[in-house]
Amino acid sequence: MKKDLLVQLRSGAPLSRQEQVRLIAQLSLPAIMAQLSHIVMQYIDASMVGRLGASASASIGLMASSTWLFNGMCQAAVTGFTVQVAQRIGAGEQREARAVQKLAFLVAVGFALVLALAGASVSGWLPGWLGGEAGILAGATSYFLIYALSLPFVQLNNLSTGLLQASGNMRLPSVLHVVMCGLDVVFNMLLIFPETTLFGVAIPGAGLGVAGAALGTALSQVVIGFVMLFFLLVRSPMLSIRRGERLRYERRFLMRSLRIGLPIGVERIIMSGAQVMATRIVAPLGTIAIAANSFGVTAESLCYMPGYGIASAAATLIGQSIGAGRKDLARRLGVLTTCLGIAVMSVSGALMYAFAPVMIGIMSPDPAVVELGARVLRIEAFAEPMFAASIVAAGVFRGAGDTLMPSIFNFASMWGVRLPMAALLAPKLGLVGVWIAMFSDLTVGGILFLIRLRGGKWLRASDK
Prior knowledge:
Elements: H1 2-11, H2 17-50, H3 54-62, H4 64-90, H5 94-122, H6 126-129, H7 137-149, H8 151-166, H9 171-191, E1 195-198, E2 201-204, H10 210-235, H11 251-282, H12 287-323, H13 327-363, H14 367-380, H15 384-399, H16 404-429, H17 431-455
Antiparallel strand pairs: 1-2
């Protein structure tokens, strides 16, 4: 059914409101599962490492802002190409879509190799610069080094996933990412602890601790990345390799990719600088605060990742609608997907408020960490509806190739609201003050995105 509705969209056939809602749901649900699988992997790492103590957890938490920066830059390199592929498919230009895809692998994976070398070269001094205590520096260094070296394989996974989703295939990436979660559990059991008991049987492990968590995640990414690549290049009806279609360089593909992806990349750099500043604000509050902050961010991710799944579906729908020349439909789908995201994340925010102690308790046995983590989670629960508006609307704009203004909005709310408030409130209220600042930032950002969505200027980006 999903395929038929996408064919109707691309062919110019009318779609009723019910069919539009059904198409959004059919694309969103698998994308939500794919996004949730990433957070489940973080949950797995955090809960397993949490059994090693607050110091081990703080080692990972300290590097969260840096890994976010590198992940964001990789995603920015991918986005410029996946948007073009979705629009080419919407226009019925599948050969052009495959030409963009080939250039995407060359550029995006090459960029990830450069990031991997850069990350490995700074891994030794970065934890100390971030303000980490002496007891967590070694674990943080090993964690980030392994993460950095895995970036080319992470990018392979990112690109294959994004291209399959751009073609309208949301289900396969979802299934494979769930499998990746299972692999992560297995690898972590074998690598983090010296021994694991499973169904009463003692299984020997490598006992690598924090480094084992990073290595387990990396290995699961490698395995699934190559499986995803096989389905993209061999089995995809639209994007598989064709004989006689050679790699050809077209400057317009690269320049449009830069126009779409560069604002996202610059945003990630600036925003990650802000995240680093936020980490430096939290670091002096002590190991308990660092661990509670890290676990709080991971726990909140379970609530906002459905929004990112809906945003992925929105980018595909808007991209293909605009490629098919159906801007009125693109506007309607943009509003519907954003409303769906707000509704879903309002429910998830209510659940997060109710089960905050349980969510933190899964990851840490330390009562002080659980108490502080639950307190800040309950503050953040009230920001989820507006956070949903910014996440899903950004996906809508991305599908149209409109990435500059969303980047400006995120920059303004982070640097103009969150950081000044956090610096002011942290000395007085501790971690609670930092999360009040985060709540204010997300609320202001959501309002800005809703104003732009309503105005419709984002649709003009596709004309350039």
